[in-house]
Amino acid sequence: MLEKMEKFDQEKVIAEFEAITKDAEKVQRETLKKILEENGSAEYLQNLGLNGRTDPESFKSCVPLVTHKELETYIQRIADGDSSPILTGKPITTISLSSGTTQGKPKFVPFNDELMETTMQIYRTSFAFRNREFPIGNGKALQLIYSSKQFKTKGGLAAGTATTNVYRNFQYKQTMKAIQSQSCSPDEVIFGPDFHQSLYCHLLCGLIFRNEVQLVSSTFAHSIIHAFRTFEQVWEELCTDIRDGVLSSRITVPTIRTAMSRLLKPDPHLAELIYNKCSGLSNWYRLIPELFPNAKYIYGIMTGSMEPYLKKLRHYAGELPLLSADYGSSEGWIGANVNPQLPPKLATYAVLPHIGYFEFIPLRVDIEDQDHNKMDRSFLCMEPKPVGLTEVKIGEEYEIILTNGAGGRLNPASQKEKAREHIRSNHVPIGCLYRYRLGDVVKVMGFHNSSPELKFVCRSNLLLTINIDKNTEKDLQLAVEEAGKLLGEEKLEVVDFTSHVDTSTEPGHYVIFWEISGEANEEVLKECCNCLDKSFVDAGYVSSRKVNTIGPLELRVVWRGTFQKILDHYLGLGAAVSQFKTPRCVGQANNNVLQILCGNVAKSYSSTAF
Ligand code: AMP
To answer: Model's pTM, two decimal places?
Structure first.
């Protein structure tokens, strides 16, 4: 049984990682060679005149940098059922749907077993390092994970979000078992057709297995926050279900009901215990360790657009460590968190040099602005000249370029591994995107051996710009964080936020939408609005505001539940909660979301800061 999972050997996994990062440049060359050899027959590469060359220099001179847009027609042909070698030597059988929350609509991306293999490698690698620092016992994980709708493309290929493709894969379960992170929820809950019902049952399963739960996790931290905010609403109902051993009538999906009935037995003692614990909490502080006394940590992606949720997560977590999960995308993986002891705000991701070929476009650094601790990432030098993985410099920011994905073990040690590697590389398409601009900005924080450790900075596209102003997702995040402090003094918080550039007025202005946890008084909100306006320190913005070529910033407070409506809207488009990231800027093109926001405004304020 070649597929059978070997027992997890933590030290071996760490040793393998140390070995592949020792000479990352060599590994990168070999990886590129492997990708190009495997896909030499692909139409895309044939047309570029590589003629069998596999060295980085030829690759860079023949193959252009692309974005998803340039590949759309190729990917569409694959989705429509053209099985000729288009992007890969071997056919693609599955399509992933990216979350699409940044651009407004989900993108199709090829998925293959190769990506599955690298996913498992990343999971194993970060687990090995994590478990060395924060060992977990044998038990279960409260995994707040969900599947998206699965469908077939016109050409009959299976399509779903990348996370769903992963969760459905046999290897996923095997790996989770090996790394002691099996979900306490049955498959019927994870793959349930209704996210709200799945969430309720995840919470119920967590409570039923509360003593066994070793960790609470999700893909992105947003799902954890969302789950425990929901817990605040439904906890009494959960207690009733446990006391009586009868599942709430809110669960209507028959498969979920059947699966849950196998787990749910009347347990008045447990119900009372949970009831008392919840009643005794002050504003739900330390909710997670109270519910799950043996949990060792909380795990999920906590960097980038997840940072605004950290404060709330810390509140629920009390003293439990918050460990950020790895860095990747539907298009491919990039790095693993091998320094789990770092707090989420400082989390870095060490690139695995054999899972893809990586290039980095240096972003111009505006020296003058450095005093204000602000880089001008405006962008890419006129002629983007990417550098290689080992040529990046500590402290600099780059846009990341991906050629995916090799993976597999470079030096299979045992006969068994050699056999598996042989089978894998003969049957599995390798690679599919070449010199692909992922759209992420990263900062190099250091090196693990010779492979860089990256900090995620932000998406590279500008969020807010009217004329000479340039503000990124990160800038918006910082402004909201600053203004949110004023709410904090009132014991209130920003539940979620987004922005919009309103050019229907003359001059145009920024609009920030906030959902707040309670009623804030007028004066505080006016101050918040001014503070937001002042917190965009980009020189272009400040000077435009001073001369009124950009109008006063507008803060629009939306009704509670508005961001839930946005989430529901994306789920309807086929997105999965597991990959959901609140869009931080909503343009005119994203009309449906804009309508949800504008239709739910409770109050609005105009800045008087300038
Ligand atoms: P998706 O489109 O759903 O595949 O999401 C992929 C994107 O999520 C990446 O391109 C990043 O922008 C973001 N992302 C993934 N992992 C991380 C991470 N560890 N930290 C911050 N952002 C991340």
So the answer is: 0.88
